[in-house]
Amino acid sequence: MDRPKLDYVSVSHDRNKLLKIEYSFKPTENTPGDETIKCVEFSNDSEYQDFLEEKDFSEVEIFQLLNNETNESVNITENDPPYDGFDLYYFRIDGDKETFLDLGFEGTCYNIEMKSNTNMKTPYYDSYLKSLREMGFFENNGSKLIAVKIIMDRLTGNSNLKYNGISVDSERPLHMDISECLFKYNFFNFESRCNGRDIYIAFDLDSTFTILEKNFYSELMEKVNSRNYSMEKIDDDKEYFIEISMNCQKCKKEHSNRITFYRNNNILEIIIC
């Protein structure tokens, strides 16, 4: 018997345990309008494992992790590619603090939109739910850590990769943690770039680029440019821009790593192509 597919999953937890899961089934020919959100609570681990085994998470479109104790959340949205032949890794991310005046608290929401063709999707949501503690879900900065790991899982295509080198800093923005991981896992390297997919990551920042952020990317790109490739920098009233590029003798194309902060809308772009 086929397991019913889910298209929405929202997990609520506190510091020590999972509290509940809200979910909805993916519409089918038999139930085209069944978008009712259901809620389940678990009295023991066996009930939780049964729930995971009985459901199909391979086509989840919205995946949420809510920390009720720290008022943090990670919201993943899987959107269809904008056109046929779409062949890159696309992420749109914001990590704004939001104040809920009617409820009397402030929270941080890490919203991540991902677009990719079907062959590039990595339906790991059931494996995440089976290993929340191992992934650091209940730790300090757990929501931020999970956000970074989910992005790295999509890029590597491997949810079982051991991220011993991944760490996050509560005092710095999410984009710096992600960029550091891109560097550690060699995504900025030009080797083997010919057969790889392009990566586009856009961050909606809630303020202008700081000196700390400028220095971070300047130092990062200097480390990336250990072989003295062509490097261009711009820092004016319109943008902060760093690009390292090379003309590839193998594929006869130009490869580049590009960091751009647009001052008019506070958007930071990282392009690896």
In short:
This is DUF5067 domain-containing protein. The chain is α+β, with helices and mostly antiparallel strands and 273 residues long. The chain contains five helices and 13 strands.
- Element-by-element helix/strand order: EEEHEEEEEHHHEHEEEE
Helix content: 10-25%
Average pLDDT confidence is 85
Oligomer: single chain
- Estimate the global geometry from the Cα principal axes: globular
- Poorly predicted regions: none
* Sheet with most strands: 13 strands, mixed
Radius of gyration: 20 Å
Number of strands: 13
Number of helices: 5
Distance between the termini: 43 Å
Report the sheet-strand fraction: 25-35%
Q: What labels would you give this structure?
A:
alpha+beta, 5 helices, 13 strands, DUF5067 domain-containing protein
What does this structure look like?
The termini are far apart. Strands 1, 2, 3, 4, 5, 6, 7, 8, 9, 10, 11, 12 and 13 form a 13-stranded mixed sheet that branches. With 273 residues, the protein is of the alpha+beta class. Helix 3 (142-156) runs parallel beside helix 4. 21% of the residues lie in helices and 34% in strands. It has a domain at 6-171. It is globular. A hairpin with a 4-residue loop joins strand 1 (6-13) and strand 2 (18-25). The chain is built from five helices and 13 strands. The chain has helices at 45-54, 125-130, 142-156, 174-184, 211-224, and strands at residues 6-13, 18-25, 38-40, 62-67, 72-79, 88-94, 97-100, 105-115, 198-204, 230-235, 239-247, 254-262, 267-272.
